[in-house]
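Sat 14:20. Reprocessing the chain from the morning session after the first attempt stalled halfway. Input below, unchanged.
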Amino acid sequence: MTAEELMRVALLEAEKGRGRTHPNPAVGALVVRGGRIVARGHHQKAGGPHAEVVALRKAGARARGADLYVTLEPCNHTGRTPPCTEAILAAGIERVFFGSTDPNPLVDGYGGRKLSRSRVEVHAGIAGDECDASNEPWFKFITSGLPWVVLKAAITLDGKLPGGIVSGEQSRALVHRWRDQLDAILVGAGTVRADDPRLTVRGVPKGRNPIRVVLGTPPKNARLFKEAGETIVAGGPMETVLRDLARRGLTSVLVEGGSNVHGQFLEAGLWDELRLFIAPKIFGEKELSWAGRAGKRTLELRSVARVGEDVLSIYRRRP
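Finished this time. Tokens:
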């Protein structure tokens, strides 16, 4: 396998920790000896060993003289765990290949330089674009103090966001996987009053509920207060709410509406990605636009896919 192919295996390993590592990134690592993978590891949760350490422990004596592949630059500082560079040196790793340079000011380049100065051969930027994309939400969080914001809406062909179920079963199953992967889910109090949603993860093996965030004052007897996990009732300017969530260590937020909340995020420019399900239905003039009162804007289309009977379009904000 080439270095890029091995790094893609490490990226698949990193995905096993997706949604569980905040405020840390999702990272995967491999110990490779003679071109053969002898151990794999991923970061499982904050405060636990980093991916490199997990893989090195699994490899044991086989790590001496071997290569280490890791999707993010190894850290060289003491946080809740010791520096990964020390573990790498102690294990006797000969070469380190990493994908993304860590933008955290505590790390940024220091990990790679520490290893190089200690006579470990270091190769940076392996499958770099793919590794960067893997942790794009965390990069924003660590550099801006704001979480990555994903707007999600299920709408009709005429752009309406009616109450009740709009999208098909496969689309709804996909949304539950997103809830499992993102740190928080946000709705307005109006949605809670109208739909009384649970905002939980269902149908995902070993799924975990995201932190629930409600803007405004929801009914005290709402179902979401009875579900496992934490519910935050928030108010104030949108950016202040997002910064408060980031201070709690939440690196990503899934915004599920309704139209007023979506419109506020669009108008303020406080979003990063839009995931829009379009169902083969028409509801007519009386229903609200999913974008609320947001003004004119042009988005950047990233992908289009069919999900059951629906079409899923993914957009980004234009720079």
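The chain is about 30% helix and 25% strand.
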